[in-house]
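Priority: medium. Attachment 1 of 2:
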């Protein structure tokens, strides 16, 4: 029996490249089967009831990505404490990832302690719109510049919906502390009808969502709120 996600994946892959629509926030993250450094996975099953961060890399043994994978390993406990699974992807075979992991540990002080997808057939990269649908050939013969668009970060919720998409250039290392901050905001706002203001950090004041009427807000926040403008209603972060 073919699952809905498999049908969606085939439908997305079959659309001509020039007519394809990029994945957007709120879309269901395409499901896929893949080999990883921790064995084979079906992506949606692997996520389960957790949140997930998928971050992709153009090629193994690239300098900026080496620093990124090492730092992600260092802060993995922070993601664990938030019920967030992390998974990497590189457009190279899984066997190459093991050798790269040794370099990462020696140079960054931390070896990857999360699965890394081997995407040598470009399946996931194409499914997520990171490489053109017509990409083919041997991964080993491609350079990092060929794969430079494979520098994405996606946060995916337990409902398998995409909550965040970040795309970085090859020369700029990613800020995974910012990803943690966004996860905190996403998890808070998923439970409470609030939004987080600019540069918000855990514990800071928040804004009552515009979808909440003043009448309903008074029930939720009987002590009232700060309101520099009628459309801005500031309250302490819900606990």
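Attachment 2 of 2:
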């Amino acid at each position: 029996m073919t699952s809905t996600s498999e049908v969606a994946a085939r439908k997305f892959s079959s659309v001509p490249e020039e007519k394809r629509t990029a994945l957007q926030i709120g879309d269901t993250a395409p499901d896929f089967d893949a080999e990883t450094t921790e064995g084979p996975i079906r992506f949606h099953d692997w996520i389960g009831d957790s949140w997930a961060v998928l971050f992709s890399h153009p090629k193994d043994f690239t300098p900026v990505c080496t620093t990124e994978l090492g730092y992600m390993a260092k802060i993995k406990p922070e993601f664990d404490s938030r019920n967030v699974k992390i998974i990497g992807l590189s457009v190279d075979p899984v066997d190459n990832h093991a050798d790269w992991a040794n370099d990462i540990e020696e140079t960054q002080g931390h070896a990857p302690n999360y699965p890394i997808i081997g995407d040598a057939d470009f399946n996931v990269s194409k499914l997520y719109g990171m490489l053109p649908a017509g990409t083919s050939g041997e991964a080993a013969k491609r350079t990092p510049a060929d794969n430079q668009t494979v520098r994405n970060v996606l946060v995916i919720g337990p409902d398998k919906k995409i909550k965040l998409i970040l795309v970085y250039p090859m020369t700029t290392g990613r800020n995974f502390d910012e990803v943690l901050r966004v996860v905190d905001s996403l998890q808070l706002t998923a439970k409470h009808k609030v939004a987080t203001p600019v540069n918000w950090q855990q514990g800071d004041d928040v804004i009552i969502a515009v979808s909440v009427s003043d009448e309903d807000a008074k029930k939720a926040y009987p002590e009232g709120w700060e309101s520099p403008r009628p459309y801005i209603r500031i309250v302490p972060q819900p606990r």
